[in-house]
Specification:
By secondary structure, the chain is an all-alpha fold. It contains 20 helices and two strands. Strand 1 and strand 2 form a beta hairpin. Helix 11 crosses helix 17. The longest helix has 33 residues. The radius of gyration is 23 Å and the shape is globular. The C terminus is likely disordered.
Length: 468
């Protein structure tokens, strides 16, 4: 799904007519479309900076609208239903984007908005799927490994988009392939999910008795309160710290993904094709970092003897410092080179990811495993509401593509990360919150908290596997 989200940054550079110091590489190749629609080649879309920023943000605007919906549906009917609806809808709308762009800019905007709405349905179900299939010891490893898939998708799409932009096979190719090829690849993944994805162990037809018993004894969810404690959730300082970190992280990610490719092209005069290959370097390192954190976090925690909360805070602070340091290096260097920028973005995304994959992000399953899907939807909704304007705000600031304008964009991120670093250091936590469990239950992880599968078996009756 990351390929369908992140390809637009390079695609817009390939599609937009050159304005000011924005360049574009011509390509006469096109792809077939409806007979009454004029085919458009590379560099034929007359979009200014504000329009490009609005189009880039359209996916995120739609994403915000459905994140809580996905969490609520997954809590009631299982995670697979919204997950599969999101996958199929995302791909179908993505395939329509090239046609929409050639018809009208606003139709293209609407397609990306609807695509974002489908993608938003995945936010809550993702955590809900994990909550029934892993123990506490496995949480850090499996979550980090799973979310490294986003980085892997981004690694693939940047060089792929640059190459597809310049493709010309017997007159066919160009910008529209940046949409068609990733969508085709994504269809294969969705079909795999359709066949092998299950909400809970009770629904899995081939689970072994040994695995089922292991999950029964070790899964980290317990009996939940009869009523969702909304007031306790929204006044919980650890949860607030989680949401604030998530918001700042997304603001940084959206800036790096959507705006910095334009920085490399306009400020450093790097062609779109080369920019795609260079820009995948930070995401390769980010992918490696996430898997490094996944495998080493339990080892470091056991060797140091530190509590889960202390370790998460240390990881989070280290990642925040790396983000701040990397951006300061760009701000205070007047004559930046492409390798300086690539190194700074690599530090930002790779070492900064310690704050995410090793720091605050996995703690949602520690804070309230009962409400993993719901709280994932709530936190994602709030974080995206805060961070969605990033691309558009940056496009407003960057009018002339001057170094001072770009410095302003980077200072915003530095201020955000400085604030959330201290806030999480004070209020962050990785301890089970009492409001997330039934009052009569002892809030400790382990076999005594295995009542989830009593609930799981009951919920299986309202989570029929034939839905998907």
């Amino acid at each position: 799904m990351a390929m369908l989200r992140d390809n637009l940054g390079i695609a817009l550079l390939c599609m937009s007519k050159p304005v000011g110091n924005l360049t574009c590489e011509l390509n006469e190749a096109t792809m077939p479309t409806l007979p009454w629609i004029d085919r458009k080649q590379n560099c034929e879309f007359e979009w200014d900076s504000a329009t490009r920023g609005r189009i880039l943000g359209s996916f995120l605007y739609g994403y915000v609208l459905t994140t809580m919906v996905g969490g609520i549906i997954s809590n009631s009917y299982g995670a697979k239903l919204p997950f599969m609806v999101a996958g199929y809808g995302n791909v179908i709308i993505h395939l329509l984007c090239p046609l929409a762009a050639q018809v009208h800019t606003e139709l293209f905007f609407a397609c990306r908005l609807v695509q974002g709405m489908f993608a938003g349905l995945m936010a809550g179900p993702f955590f809900q799927l994990f909550s029934a299939w892993m123990s506490e010891d496995e949480a850090s490893i499996l979550l980090s490994f799973a979310f490294s898939g986003y980085s892997f998708g981004t690694i693939m799409i940047y060089p792929m988009s640059g190459a597809l932009c310049n493709s010309n096979i017997h007159g066919y190719g160009g910008w529209s392939l940046i949409f068609y090829v990733p969508a085709t690849i994504s269809i294969l993944f969705i079909l795999y999910w359709h066949l092998y994805l299950y909400d809970v162990p009770d629904n899995h037809p081939k689970i072994s008795p040994e695995e089922y018993e292991y999950l029964l004894q070790n899964v980290g969810i317990s009996a939940e309160p009869p009523v969702i404690p909304w007031l306790s959730i929204f006044t919980s300082l650890p949860f607030i710290a989680y949401v604030m970190c998530y918001s700042a992280f997304l603001w940084n990610i959206f800036t790096m993904m959507n705006n910095m490719p334009m920085f490399m092209q306009t400020m450093l005069s790097i062609p779109t094709n080369e920019s795609g290959y260079l820009y995948c370097i930070p995401f390769i390192l980010m992918f490696l970092t996430r898997n490094f954190n996944a495998t080493t976090y339990p080892i470091i925690r056991n060797c140091t003897g530190l509590s889960n909360t202390v370790c998460r805070k240390l990881y989070c602070c280290f990642g925040c410092i790396m983000v701040i340091t990397s951006l300061l290096s760009i701000i205070f260097e007047e004559n930046v080179t492409k390798w300086h920028v690539v190194a700074a973005i690599s530090i930002n995304l790779a070492l900064g990811d310690f704050a995410y994959s090793g720091g605050f992000f996995p703690t949602l399953l520690d804070l309230a495993p009962n409400y993993a899907g719901l709280l994932s939807g709530v936190s994602t909704f709030i974080a995206f509401v805060v961070a969605c304007p990033a691309t558009y705000v940056n496009s407003i600031i960057i009018k002339q593509n001057t170094k001072d304008e770009w410095n302003t964009v980077l200072w915003i991120i530095i201020i955000l990360f400085t604030f959330i670093m201290f806030f999480y250091l004070i209020f962050g936590s990785a301890k089970l919150q009492l409001w997330s469990v039934a009052k009569l239950e002892v809030p400790e992880r382990g076999p005594l908290r295995s009542t989830i599968y009593n609930a799981s078996r009951n919920m299986s009756t309202i989570r029929p596997s034939h839905l998907f």
